[in-house]
Fold this sequence. Notes:
By secondary structure, the protein is mainly β.
Amino acid sequence: MTDSTSITIGYDDGDIDTNGSTGGNSLNALIDRRYSRRAALLGGTKAAAFAVFGGAVLAACGEDESKDAGPTITAGSSGETSSGRVVTLTGSTSNTAGTAQSAFSQVSGPPVALTQGATGTTFIAPSVAAATMLVFRYTATDSKGLTFSTDTSVSITPATLGFAAVSKNKLDVVTVPAGYTVSVLYRLGDPIDAATPAYKNDGTDTSYATRAGDHGDALHWFGLAAAGSTRDDTSSTRGLLVMNHENINQPYLHVGGATNAGGVRPEAEALKEMECHGLSVVEVTRSSAGAWSYVQAGALNRRITPLTPTVFNGPVKGSNLLKTAFSPTGVAGRGTINNCANGYTPWATNLTCEENWAGYFRRPTATDNALRTPREVVALTRFGVTSASGNYGWSTVVPADSTNTLYRRWDARVSGATATDDFRNESYQFGWVVEIDPYDKASVPRKRTALGRFNHEGCWPSNFVVGRKPAWYMGDDAQNEYLYKFVSATPWAEADATAADRLSIGDKYLDNGTLYVAKFNADGSGSWSPLTFGSGPLTAGNVTYAFADQADVLANARLAGDALGATKMDRPEWTAVNPVSGEVYLTLTNNSSRTAANTDAANPRAYLDPPSTSVSNRNGHIIRLRETGDTSEALAFAWDIYAFGAGSDLDPTNINLSGLDATNDFSSPDGLWFGRSSNASGKVTPVLWIQTDDSAYTDVTNCMMLAAMPGPVNDGGVKTVTNAGRTQATRVGKAPGTTLRRFLVGPIEAEITGVDSTPDGKTLFVNIQHPGENGNPSNITSHWPDTQATGTAAATIRPRSATVVITKNDGGVVAL
Ligand code: FEO
Ligand code: CA
Ligand code: CA
């Protein structure tokens, strides 16, 4: 037993644990240990603390506040780490019999939240733009009330990517970097109410309106308070995931695959397939031990499907184009379909985007064109409403209730006397951005027609600035289509962020404004052209298509873009906005119809990528723009290309223009998202996440997700590439090098789709879409997610699209 005069010197080494920093065995650490030992050998009552930075001892401070004997304390060695990482402070108190209490407090530097844990006091290194010192004081009070303290310091440097790249692979699991854990959260078929039975996954399951849908795509986190259904934007432990269910792996949904006897689909099969589309709103929580799960009976859990009632808002509401036998006034409709990427609003609603809707409709042109006006044929053809059968043949169903038009609606042929006698206009009810209030289960989704109609991939907002009109950036995903932005007519007012009636705030910002389409000029400039009826070629006098009114311009946005001379892009997918700079990124996933004869500066490559034998942009690229004056209201911008997809074995002069290597080569970028500005991954130099939907590089690797820390637009230069037989000048950003790194590789035949994090950045949610999509019940090509735990699963197990959770084992911000 020690007493107050027999002093044992506390001694710790490596006390500041940066858990993931590569500097743990650095010279600094060795110096720390030597000086700590020396302090120990010197003995006495002097408290010890050392500040070591950059290899030099800058300070050795520590005052004994009493000459009397008492507890001896150390606050460990000082250290250095970077933003977003976990720092553990350990202090020790010797001669403990006399010690009443001890604790760390912060003396200086950006304020951090100190958490007392089993191994010490921890905090997340705050976001800094330059090296910044934080000083902490370890204070002990003995039983006589005497206080002793000593200081230690931690130098924080700006955030960097803090993981080792994952290797390309073709395993049937999700692979993440060392130091990270992936777990499966929410799978196709998981029940979302108490009454629905567990999923058998053998093709016999029903009731998909109360189960997770198929093909999870974009997702977004909406925080919930610790209890109840109250919105809490700061929560990182309880929330709602709103996710799209874009499409289906049809064969696996039925016992022996889909059936079609006599050319007629069974009603039960078609209903199941329809209900697997749409969205989920599902509650998820983190336990105190750190494990995530979805809440089967969550009060706000909800499926929105192609059967869910919807209403139309904005300029196209009530237009003749929207009138059908179900909706004779053109103000309402049923459901949403092929929901791909997403967006959000600061008033906490979700924007879901209808992408490849055209193919769901049955309209054989050979018979139907003759029953249409020439204008109608131009419009329907431009949007591809030309399928002879419609995806999955839903319109062939003969329903038990003959008055049920849920199946007949997919038949877009002219069959009745007028447009309100049939579903010739049903395709006009799709192709919109739809706003959903996740906190109100009874709310009716609103289709926001002011944002135009096309193959909406996503709808990502500009940064919000009080008094400025906000914008949403939107890709139209098909070959040679356009990039759009919608600028609200209403300047942003901060109070609207917390209004109770969220969808009425949506009316205020999303029903009035101007839709623009982008032109990318060869000199690195660009411009936005308004889709405003009566302006420029958007009149009844337009030769290709005589525009009737603003509703017609918006509903036929592609024809308006054509007339305005917009730049034909290599399949515009997701947009993402840098939360610091406001720069806008756009994935251009690939374009098999790009040839050397029709490249342009913004879509500059047409090349051969074996084993393909056709010249095209096989691997895609990521373009970015900076609005003039850094305002969402700008009519002009500057652009360059952030990164070109390519295998690292391809020609570095003309194809692998971003110098990708084995740690970061990728193909067909699709999902794109910046870390949230509420944590270090979205500050200073925010992390950009890139997800692939690839079929070009799949001879080498499954689809993947990468993390990057891009520099600004125009950090590179001008370059001329030689395509097959023709040169093309373009603008290439600085080669990303190690600032672009592969973070995840998915399972077999899967695409990596949605991504979001909790506000604290410590939990990442990622959707894994259509594993085993090329198989069927008699030839199952993936068994994921059942393979995730061990790498294998029984050969009879069918694959399921699913959401995974990724956390850093030390609790730090993911990727940093
Ligand atoms: Fe649904 Fe364009 O990806
Ligand atoms: Ca997509
Ligand atoms: Ca896709």
